[in-house]
Amino acid sequence: MIVLTVIAAAVFMANLDLWIVNVAFVAIGTSLSASLADVSWVLNAYAVTLAALLVPAGRLGDRVGHRKVFLGGVVVFTLASAACGLAPNLAVLVVARIAQAAGAAAQLPASLALLMAAVPAESRTNAARSWSAIGAVAAVCGPVIGGLLVTLDWRWVFVVNLPIGIAALAVGLRVLPHPAPRSREPIPDLAGAALLVAAVASLTGALVEAPGWGWTSGRTIGLLAAGVVGSALFLWRSMRHAHPLVELHLLRVRRFAIANAGTVAFSAAFAIMLLSNSLWCQAVWHYSPLRTGLAMAPGPLMVPFVTAWSARLVLRVGLGPLTAVGSALFALGLVWRIAAATATPDYLRDLLPSMLIGGAGVGLALSSFIAAGATALPTERSATASGTVNSGRQIASALGVAVLITILGAAGGTVARYDAGWWVGVGLSVVAGAIGLGLGRGGPRTVSPRSPREALAAARD
After folding, report:
1. At the topology level of CATH, where does 2-179+245-460 sit?
2. pTM of the model
3. Where exactly are the structural domains of the chain?
4. Residue 443 backbone zone (phi > 0: left; psi -120 to 50: alpha; other: beta)
């Protein structure tokens, strides 16, 4: 139980910081004299770096031991959090967020591998769903905790990580298991990781800056071209490198490919929902950060209950129907906002029902998508599986944020523009649900043949 507590604390902390700054957006921009587009890099620099480093960090854990990588990640993340809290300007804050992402990348895949090593084989699917639920709870709790801390000062949204990190390190050194490393596991293509960062950063940069620069300006076209070329080069290296960052052949495992595609679509919609609701409450309804966080609290309260309740349904109806129903509920929550939202605050008729419906959707869909991906490959590849799934999740989050900022414009957006952003979220949710149906009604299965090649062949069958 203590092992699970340490892992949960670190996973919660790493996921929390991906989202906690949503409520602090306005305060950070005001304090550092930065525009909405510029402040978006506090989110996107973290998400893009995390996406690029998750797989190398997971593979490093396979090679030197997940315990070492996990505890090292806690140290880096904690120190970077202190740097974020002390940042004198936006540039330093973004650099510190990149360091934070490196620490989070070390923690997340290793934490799942440690968890899988600590539970019996028959409990691994629900353990993976619980692990993903921690991330979902952290994501939707971010606005609540952020609202409380921004009331003191926006820097507290980063300083809060220090006691959690120190406690996790102190207890983890004593209680975490020592699963045997695979000493011959190669480190993936780091140049490919750099290409991925450059490609996603270029695409998000073009989307974020285009409203100010103009869609036909040389800078916008240049960034878009760099994003396309970088993406093509990344795929080219992934197909030809001996140890690519993303093992494209794993996507021939049908269940793994479906889980990744569904996670990407749903995560982009989720990012749009979370940031738009935070900005709406502060920019349109003129709520304080604390009131904004409390207004969004019902969503997080739904996630753990729905996730726990649906655990019994996994073997009865399968992950496919759960992801489809969850995605449909999430889309319905956004449609409710489109129908009910006005510039005049009406919390009980507008935001509250939307958060309750959407929170139920997150509890069903996101945890099921991630569990499907984490259990689609053999147990010895769990770190690689979780790293790949979560990389896609972070890239989708960064692109979702960039699309929303583009739609809202530099001034923060009108009601019609928020509606447009929510319609994009609805479309992405519908796509995620359709993809999720491909997982079928069958429950998760454990694949454990005698060799990794046999394991992957069995998973494809």
Report:
1. Growth Hormone; Chain: A; (1.20.1250)
2. 0.83
3. 2-179+245-460, 189-244
4. beta
